[in-house]
Amino acid sequence: MLPYATLDEAAAALGRNLTVAETLWFNYSAKKSDYYLYCHNILFLFLLFSVVPLPMVFISLWRSGGFDKYKIQPKVKLSPSETFKCYKDVMLMFFFVVGPLQLVSYPSVKMIGIRTSLPLPSGWEVFLQLVVYFMVEDFTNYWIHRFLHGKWGYEKIHKVHHEYTAPIGFAAPYAHWAEILILGIPSFLGPAMVPGHMITFWLWIALRQIEAIETHSGYDFPWTPTKYIPFYGGADYHDYHHYVGGQSQSNFASVFTYCDFIYGTDKGYRFQKKLLRKLKKGVENGVEQNGGSYYVPTQDLKSD
Question: A GO molecular-function term, please (predicted)?
Answer without folding.
Answer: oxidoreductase activity
